[in-house]
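Chapter summary example.
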Amino acid sequence: MQNTQIFALLLTLQPKEVRELRKFLDSPFFNHRKDVVRLFEYLAKKMAKGKTELDKEKVFRKVYPKERFTEQAFRQLLSWLQQLIEKYLAYKRLFDDDIRVKIQLAEVFRERDLARHFKKTIREAEKKLDTPALRNADYYEQRFALEFEKYNASSIQRMTSHNFQSISENLDWSYIIKKLQQVCFTIAHQTVYRIDYELGMFREVLNYIERNHLTEHPTIAAYWYCYYALSDPEREDNFFRFKELLVQNNQRFSLEELRNLYLLAINYCIRRLNAGHLAFAREGLDLYKNALQSEVLFSRGVLSRFTFRNIVAMGLKVKEYDWVEQFINRYQDDLEAEYKSSTYALNMATLAYTRRHLDRALELLQLSDYKDLLMNLSSKTLAAKIYYELREDMLLYSHLQTMEVFIRRKKVMGYHRKNYLNFIHYLKQLHKLPSFDHKRTESLRTNISEEEILTEREWFLQILEKE
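The structure predicted for these 467 residues follows.
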């Protein structure tokens, strides 16, 4: 049963949401089925105890003790509960947005000719809208909706003065910010996947921004400089202006927007770093530190294992070993529970390896079972590097053979398959390289330098420098 959609949905619920959902299901306004309530209570109780492998027939009997189990009846029961959970989540999303609720309520009052109610609700919406410092696309979209409601009310009352300028301005700004935002994501995607996209009216948007000096608007300016940094990486001044605007104006964006903007900035640093501009390791780490301080890298209170590893890698690049160790120990409890021990072990092993504590690194690698495929491959790659550097020839040979079988058996696909098979190939070549054979050394160096996909290129070139 753990593979059902409803089970996956239930696993995302926080304790507070479970309590709210219980009240939602108990309300006859939303639900009149007691069997659905019994199902939810049973599942919630089991999941609270960490039990995720449940027998569907046993679950069915808990809800219907006197009925015979059938697949159709069980699927129908799950469907009823899932529909109600989805309604709760939609209801929660709507009513968590006080401003949107106020604007919709104002529309209801206007349609019912309740002028006093309408004006009071509009005033409350305006006050709520302007209290926070948030000035993103959603702000201007809500401001447009509010102004449009005021216009509709004034039209009914046959007033001569209308708020057309405010309606037009807020609609324009909402669109401009969203267009800039989407194009930044598109450019970032194009860079990785080498796909060209048609950007529609974007050139006209850029011209409009320039003509009307809208880069004086901090939100628009942040996305503006982000776009130019991503589309023309050589113009580093655009990146530094983007970074400055991001750090100074983070209150203008939602947490999700901030997370995306920080990741766009960090990915720019990684691109420059990969192009040989080593100073951007420091820039990337500074961005990660700012993002950690602002807590924008967390999703539902969890720090992704991939982000965790990227932060460690960036810290090691600039040799802040003590800071990296503090980071690993401080934030390990914020990782996904399923990957906490393996992520901790792999990153501490990487730190130990960088400090040249090779035996300790091997010990750490053996502390955990790496369930995540890419994390497993990363651990195998690190172990192979250590075996080579320790001159453990038999262990290295056996390890590389096992690693290659693992990749082919697990059907690692695309970029990752090519990368790890290249690693194995070149490490075998390096291992067989005769001492003082300068011709073959230079040939191998050239092949590694020109290899399209090889994340360990820098390590190979460093080893070859010593040969």
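To summarize the output: The chain has a mean pLDDT of 92.
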